[in-house]
Amino acid sequence: MGSDRAPKPEIEGVLLAARHYNVKILLVGPEEQLRNELSHHLAARHLPIEIVNATEVIGMQEKAAHAVRNKRNSTMRVGLRLVKSGQAAGFVTAGNTGAAMATAKMVLGALPGVDRPALAAVFPNSAGKASIMVDVGANVDSKPHNMAQFAIMGEIYYRTIFGVKKPSVGLLSIGEEEIKGNELTRQAFALLKELPVNFLGNVEGRDLFNGRVDVIVCDGFVGNVALKISEGVAEAFSFLLKESLRSTISSQVGYLLSRRAFVDFKKRVDYSEYGGAPLLGLKGVAIVGHGSSNANAIKNAVRVAKQFAESGINPRIEQDLALGRTLVGAGTWD
């Protein structure tokens, strides 16, 4: 019930996911409203989709702490209880990010050694691979030791999902030199270079798309701004390119000849193809998507949840965080 047009894109998305990914879906929300929406889709009768009633919804404008405390039968809390009880392998929401993180941490709990779960978003890059950035919005006021934990969790996530044995890690700053950045990034740099990861030092904003590093670590405030700017640039570039290709007869012919390449380009930069961002560091699987998620984004968010649940990432995070804390020293993490 979290997206801007809920529950329409959620239901359309899970219909696609149930067909493509061989998963059973538990739709959590006001039962009558969900049944009414499902009634418009005949295919739903033949797919493994069930409704779990939840009477309260947390809105985008609500303060996370207040909503989590007062809405005990919210769709988020009911859905995450299904994960905690083992009735569901993972939870997907396109709702309020702050409320999703707070509820997930309260219901599922954080892994040992994790102070704050972090959101990891995937970005295509010019090297023909993908990079991830951690954190992209779960924490808007991080401490240096939080960012050290983000680095370890992001490295494990990348290694597991993309099959890279020793992914490279960079710290997002305003210059490559160790002395560049603010107090937070300079202190985080000192911690990251002591971790058992392939840390390459500081990276800049342009490195998000050039493939220089696999994992980019940053504070959630900076990461969310970078994420939203990137999405806006991709949308604007796609629109401007399409307009330019259609502006003259010769360019229209060129557009028709290159349409397949253009469609492929749009798919590579379309955020909906990447679904949602996993909250790393929880005792369970929780995926957070955009409030503007369409059916394709919801479908792919379910794919991400399935992949995460099957990968066994959480035990690896717990083990490597313990190792990192030992090597760096417990005192410097506090």
In helices, the fraction of residues equals 40-55%
**How does the major sheet shape up?**
8 strands, mixed
Strand content: 5-15%
Quick one: how many beta strands? 10
Number of helices: 13
Class by alpha and beta content: alpha/beta
Question: Which geometry do the CA atoms define?
Answer: globular
Describe this structure in words.
- The protein is of the alpha/beta class and 334 residues long.
- 48% of the residues lie in helices and 14% in strands.
- It has 13 helices and ten strands.
- It has helices at 8-20, 31-38, 64-70, 75-84, 97-107, 144-162, 183-192, 207-210, 220-245, 249-257, 259-269, 295-311, 313-328; strands at residues 25-29, 49-53, 91-93, 118-124, 130-134, 168-172, 198-203, 215-217, 277-280, 286-288.
- The strands form two sheets. An eight-stranded mixed β-sheet has the order 3-10-9-4-5-8-6-7, sandwiched between helices. It has a two-stranded parallel sheet with strand order 1-2.
- A hairpin with a 5-residue loop joins strand 9 (277-280) and strand 10.
- The longest helix has 26 residues, at 220-245.
- It is globular and about 60 Å long.
Can I get a quick summary?
The chain has 334 residues and is an alpha/beta fold.
Task: Give me the secondary-structure topology.
Layout: H1 8-20, E1 25-29, H2 31-38, E2 49-53, H3 64-70, H4 75-84, E3 91-93, H5 97-107, E4 118-124, E5 130-134, H6 144-162, E6 168-172, H7 183-192, E7 198-203, H8 207-210, E8 215-217, H9 220-245, H10 249-257, H11 259-269, E9 277-280, E10 286-288, H12 295-311, H13 313-328
Parallel strand pairs: 1-2, 3-10, 5-8, 6-7, 6-8
Antiparallel strand pairs: 4-5, 4-9, 9-10
